[in-house]
Write a structure and sequence with these properties.
By secondary structure, the chain is an alpha/beta fold. The protein has six domains: 5-133 and 386-481, P-loop containing nucleotide triphosphate hydrolases (Rossmann fold), CATH 3.40.50; 135-193 and 352-383, Enzyme I, Chain A, domain 2 (Orthogonal Bundle); 213-293 and 304-346, no CATH class; 527-613 and 784-834 and 845-911, P-loop containing nucleotide triphosphate hydrolases (Rossmann fold), CATH 3.40.50; 619-769, PCRA, domain 4 (Orthogonal Bundle), CATH 1.10.486; 970-986 and 1009-1182, Lambda Exonuclease, Chain A. Helices cover 52% and strands 13% of the residues. The chain contains 48 helices and 31 strands. The strands form nine sheets. The protein has a seven-stranded parallel sheet with strand order 17-18-16-19-24-13-25. Strands 5-4-8-9-1-10 form a six-stranded parallel sheet, sandwiched between helices. Strands 26, 27, 28, 29, 30 and 31 form a six-stranded mixed sheet that branches. α18 (425-434) links the parallel β8 (414-417) and β9 (440-444). α9 (197-206) packs antiparallel against α15, α16 (388-399) packs parallel to α18 (425-434) and α29 (709-719) packs antiparallel against α31 (732-750). The protein is globular.
């Protein structure tokens, strides 16, 4: 591969700390991997220079997810193998092979995995940590926090202090203590993500006690002066535009009024902000009332001109005034009723005094937080658990020991950090403690830092970038990679024009430049579709639709218009047509919006899949089954009970449910009403149905005492028939996968020791309540499934698609949390007077809110950047323009630089209606049958008529046999029909239909021995993915299987139940060596699917199947032919080799004939040899 100048610099620079600012699509991972390979070899081929070789186990390579770590390891493995294949030096090849052996043990992991390694290696230094500790998941942690906060509140109420009573009076809502509980747990969670969090809290609290001079010279004041300057600059711009419009329209009077009473104020605020003149800013926040009116009688022409521009000018003036008002609210606390006298507002001294009054409250609040922390930690110690925060804090504590830090500094000669822009303060602390002064390689893109809500600190990247760029640190360097090898030039231009002048630091170094030169390139300009739905009077059909559904109709229209368009696929190096699977719909959130868009797409005939765990608990199958679990645990839950008995589980109709309530009366719970009706009901059938239902619930409740929770849940799913019902619903595969995931989650939960149904329900409720926790919908689609993907922008990070539609471009942005704490500002609560009953924000709270507002704005810009840099060829956005603009929407934040098209919402609805009204020759297959007249036949039928009726009614269709045939058969079915003996037929089904049977859920498989069919699936999967040239090496097979586990292809349990020696033995056979040679030539095909037409009972039907393996060879005369191989895992009796061989040849004869026919018709070559390879016997059978 040819590297550009910047890439080569990043790969080859030595003995320096390197920060690589790698823009989207710039090949950062390839650069990182190449650098690692060259360090292993100790050679720079570009310069022909050698340096010290470093083995892979002397490097630390960290990233942020397990999937990313596994992918990184796989890419390094691939790069080393390619280097081996390209090497002509025996010594170099030996080094590379040794690295392959070391790779499984190399420290390529997440930050948390590395931190766990530190804890395990230096466990003796840990305090209050049991040897058998396990990692708690987030839902378990939530439950423990709930228990801890309850204990804390109860403890203080047992012996309440005056401080506690006052605090509860001020910050609880009078009915319960939920608000106090929320404050303690949320502040605690924020603080725990800081190093030395107790000390940092004390420092932040200290900012409440500052003099005026200290405040004005502090970094905190920078926030407020910066805010004033930016808002005043924008206000000045708006006032200036209004003045220009008035002057252009020759309105004589009002430009001067706007200049003196608006624009001058804004300019003065800018000047005062630069001088840090607090009082000066305050004076300029009081604006005189400027009303525009033109005397129609004295100046009729001017009045007419003014009428044409009045709304526009007034809009600009009001927007500017709103910004000035916001400055006043920050500096003066409140502008209402203040008039023009600055002394009527709160002075800075008064506001600082108000802040200092809060200090004792914050100090007591801190004590509550630390008490909660101790109780929470004790709960975890009792259960032998640690959470992710503990991992970071414990490892940092260990690394602060000079000997431990020295150990890792000596161990790792090179440290690599991928996705550095997502580093948090704790992770940065770890890196600082173990890195040397010139061995750190950090790569990332701050423009793609979109995890602030998960405590990522993009400021770490920004500060280091500025420091390295300044040249102050001679041992450090920053390198910009801004050549984009993903997107076509018109998309890059759209990205650059969108963010220049809007995103801080988006200069020529941050801009994206094309990585390729395209010949004969057809431009596909990015388009923003503005869906106009802003009229006051709308058609009924439009009024009935939700906004998301209207936008979804536009998205469906865009998809249909672009399907089949040709584009040049740079990865495949070929021109091809756009398919559904090439398209992704991105949105900031998918919880409700995504489901509404999905339903419209499906109704429009566009297959789609939502890749989001947000809606797991909103799915019908999970909601009903959770309700069933709840009423088994506690019958007296009316809403849940009604939901379950009306579902397919018990099939009560609305009439039956109403009858039960009517006869039992309304003065009791519905559960008691059912109990009453079961004893006294009038309808015997309904009475028996109620009794059966109550008996079934009692039976399931009793059964819970006798079985593990996960087994019990699975039994209920099957006994109730609900699992089968869910599979029969639209999207049944997904629904069943979701139910299996619930059972699997129960198995994990009960392994923690608390396997009660009540605890599991509480655990699930915590996951549902917390937006940052997710069950994650079970993924059942693969990359090759031809359907449109729908996902959040966050999930799309790191991915690319030929066509991207950014939906909801005008939907309002998401706001952050509601706690007043920020590491760079301070900590606060509202100032409350419980006796007088008032609550107000102090200056500190307003400063924190402003800091967070700026950070949220910057984060939203970065989220948009990620979305705009996902497409390779086609980029579209949809914005529903209604009567209100989306607050903090992308549409408000940036100006779309590309093409815009307007779609009236009415047109989308009418277009749909037209399709619905179409007849059989239209796009909708609907037939409309006119009603028959009443008088069809008069009089008595004659003999001739009767005979004709009889002839017609007794007609026999001559091709009735064809009706018994299926249009498509699997090879397995055809082979089964050819087998006469029952035993052989059963063996055939066990082996050949193994890929078609429903897989047993993993939670049931992991503890049980795999059957022959399941082992067969694993053997086939491994044989499909192995590099056959090295498969004879058992160490290679072991390493490959380990990588399959890391990638989630197979579980460790599955891999443990196959014999890897048999795979290595196969590769050493004559057949295995021939296959390896064909693989080397690129003439071996594996897992090739086919469809073949043939005649059956006089009718043409199709058969389909998957061929395990075939390869091409040549005779001595150069004639090409094919060799067919099929793997079998049947049990083989070695004591009866001849009989068993004959049986298997006969058993699979028909199958191999169909495979041969398919290959010969598809490739035009003769299949000269056909083999079964029997893994159980480690032998091959040739089929004649």
């Amino acid at each position: 591969m040819k590297w550009n100048t910047e890439q080569a610099q990043a790969i080859n620079t030595r003995e320096k700390n390197i920060l690589v600012a790698a823009a989207a699509g710039s090949g950062k991972t390839a650069v990182l991997v190449e650098r690692i390979v060259r360090i292993i070899l100790g050679y720079d081929p570009d310069k022909g220079e050698s340096f010290e070789k470093t083995p892979i186990d002397k490097m630390l390579i960290v990233t942020f997810t397990k999937a990313a770590a596994s992918e990184m390891k796989a890419k390094i493995r691939k790069a080393i193998k390619e280097a081996i294949n390209n090497s002509h030096d025996e010594a170099e090849t030996a080094i590379l092979k040794e690295q392959l052996e070391l790779l499984p043990r190399a420290q390529i992991s997440t930050f948390h995995s590395f931190a766990l390694t530190v804890i395990k290696e230096f466990f003796h230094l840990a305090e209050n940590l049991e040897p058998g500790f396990t990692l708690a998941d987030e839902a378990e942690t939530r439950l423990m926090k709930e228990q801890a906060i309850n204990e804390l509140i109860e403890k203080h109420f047992e012996d309440p202090s005056d401080e506690f009573i006052e605090f509860m009076d001020c910050y609880s809502n009078g009915r319960n203590f939920h608000e106090v509980e929320r404050l303690i747990t949320e502040y605690h969670e924020y603080l725990r993500n800081l190093p030395d969090y107790k000390e940092q809290f004390e420092a932040m609290a200290g900012n409440l006690n500052m003099s005026k001079e200290e405040f004005l010279q502090s970094g905190i004041a920078d926030i407020v002066f910066s805010m004033a300057r930016k808002r005043a600059e924008k206000a000045a711009e708006l006032f200036g535009q209004a003045i220009d419009i008035l002057k252009d329209s020759e309105i004589a009077k009002y430009p001067e009024a706007l200049q003196s009473d608006r624009l001058d104020n804004a300019m003065n605020i800018i000047s005062c902000a630069d001088r840090r003149d607090w009082d000066g800013i305050c004076k300029n926040c009081f604006l005189k009332d400027v009303r525009f009116s033109v005397a129609k009688k004295s100046r009729p022409e001017e009045a007419e001109r003014y009428a044409a521009i009045k709304d526009e000018v007034a809009g600009l003036r009001d927007a500017g005034q709103k910004l000035i008002k916001e400055i006043g609210e920050m500096f003066l606390a409140d502008l209402k009723g203040r008039g023009s006298d600055v002394n009527r507002g709160m002075s800075l001294d008064e506001q600082l005094e108000e802040m200092s009054r809060l200090k004792p409250t914050i100090d007591f609040f801190g004590k509550l937080i630390w008490e909660f922390d101790e109780i929470f930690q004790s709960y975890k110690r009792e259960e032998g658990l640690i959470d992710f925060n503990d991992i970071e804090h414990i490892s940092i504590g260990m690394l602060k020991n000079p000997e431990v830090a020295a150990y890792y500094r000596d161990k790792f000669k090179y440290i690599f950090v991928d996705e550095y822009q997502d580093t948090n303060l704790l992770q940065e602390e770890v890196i600082c403690l173990i890195s040397g002064d010139n061995n750190l390689f950090m790569v990332g893109d701050v423009k793609q830092s979109i995890y602030k809500f998960r405590n990522a600190e993009p400021e770490i990247f920004i500060d280091k970038y500025e420091k390295y760029a300044s040249g102050a640190d001679l041992k450090s360097v920053k390198i910009d990679l801004n050549r984009n090898f993903r997107s076509k030039p018109e998309i890059l231009n759209c990205v650059n024009e969108t963010f220049q002048g809007v995103m801080a630091g988006y200069d020529n170094s941050a801009k994206l430049y094309p990585g390729f030169e395209y010949e004969n390139h057809i431009e596909n300009a990015p388009v923003l579709y503005e869906i106009k739905n802003d009229g006051d009077e709308k058609p009924d059909a439009l009024e009935e639709l939700k906004n998301a559904e209207i936008e979804a109709l536009a998205i469906a229209k865009i998809i249909k218009e672009n399907l089949g368009r040709r584009f040049y696929d740079t990865k495949k190096q070929q021109s091809r047509t756009l398919m559904l699977k090439d398209i992704v719909i991105l949105s900031r959130a998918m919880r409700t919006y995504g489901a509404e868009v999905y339903n419209v797409l499906m109704n429009e005939g566009i297959d789609a899949y939502i890749n989001s765990g947000d809606g797991y608990f909103d799915t019908l199958e999970i909601r009903i089954f959770l309700n069933l679990m709840k009423i088994i645990d506690n019958r007296r839950q009316d809403v849940e009970l009604l939901s379950v008995i009306h579902s397919e589980i018990f099939n009560f109709s609305f009439d039956e449910m109403a009858r039960i309530r009517a006869e039992a009366g309304s003065n009791m719970s519905y559960y008691k009403a059912m109990t009453y009706y079961g004893e006294n009901g009038e309808s015997l059938d309904l009475k028996n149905k109620v009794r059966d239902t109550m008996d079934k619930l009692d039976y399931w409740s009793d059964k819970l005492c006798k079985a593990p929770l996960s087994s019990w849940l699975w039994d209920i799913l099957m006994e109730s028939g609900f699992y089968i019902f869910a599979g029969a619903m639209p999207g049944g595969r997904q629904r069943q996968a979701n139910l299996r995931a619930l059972v699997q989650k129960a198995g994990v939960f009960e392994s923690t020791g608390d396997g009660t149904l009540y605890s599991f329900i509480s655990y699930l409720e915590k996951i549902e309540e917390n937006k940052n926790l997710s069950m994650g919908e079970s993924k059942i689609v693969s990359e090759n499934d031809n359907l449109v993907r729908m996902m959040t922008i966050h999930k799309s990070k790191g991915l690319e698609f030929p066509m991207v539609i950014i939906a909801g471009f005008n939907r309002k942005g998401q706001k952050g949390g509601g706690i007043s704490v920020h590491k760079d500002v301070g900590v606060a609560l509202n100032l409350v007077d419980g006796k007088e009953g008032w609550s107000k924000k102090t200056l500190m709270t307003r400063l924190i809110e402003e800091k967070r507002r700026v950070e949220e704005y910057e984060e939203n810009l970065r989220v948009l950047y990620v979305a705009l840099t996902r497409p390779t060829d086609f980029l579209f956005a949809t914005a529903l323009i209604g009567n209100k603009k989306g607050t903090d929407s992308f549409y408000e934040m940036v100006s779309w630089p590309g093409k815009r098209e307007v779609i009236p919402a009415e047109a989308l609805v009418y277009e749909t209606d037209d399709r619905a009204d179409s007849h059989i020759d239209g796009s909708n297959n609907r037939r409309y049958i006119e009603p028959l007249d009443d008088g069809i036949y008069e009089g008595q039928p004659t003999k001739e008529v009767m005979e004709e009726v009889y002839r017609r009614m007794s007609y026999r269709y001559p091709y009735a046999k064809a009706g018994e045939l299926k249009s498509k058969y699997s090879v397995s079915e055809l082979n089964s029909e050819a087998s006469q003996e029952r035993a052989e037929k059963e063996a055939l089904q066990g082996e050949l239909v193994s890929r078609l049977i429903l897989e047993m859920p993993k939670f049931m498989r992991e503890s049980a021995k795999l059957n022959s069919a399941q082992r067969g699936i694993i053997y086939h999967g491994i044989m499909e993915k192995l590099d056959l040239r090295y498969a004879g090496d058992l160490e290679y097979v072991n390493g490959a299987c380990d990588s399959f586990v890391e990638k989630g292809i197979f579980t460790e349990e599955e891999i443990s139940q196959i014999d890897k020696n048999k795979i290595a033995a196969f590769a050493k056979t004559g057949l295995g060596k021939r296959m390896a040679e064909a693989f080397e030539r690129g003439e071996l095909k594996r897992e090739k699917s086919f469809v073949l037409e043939f005649e059956k009972d006089g009718e043409k039907v199709l058969t389909q199947g998957i061929i395990d393996c075939f390869f091409k060879e040549r005779t001595d005369e150069g004639e090409e032919y094919l060799v067919l191989v099929d793997y079998k895992t049947n049990r083989f009796d070695m004591g009866k080799i001849a009989e068993e061989s004959h049986r298997l040849r006969e058993l699979y004869k028909v199958q191999m004939e169909y495979y041969s026919k398919a290959l010969e018709e598809g490739y035009g070559l003769k299949v000269r040899e056909k083999y079964l390879y029997l893994f159980d016997a480690s032998m091959e059978l040739e089929i004649s």
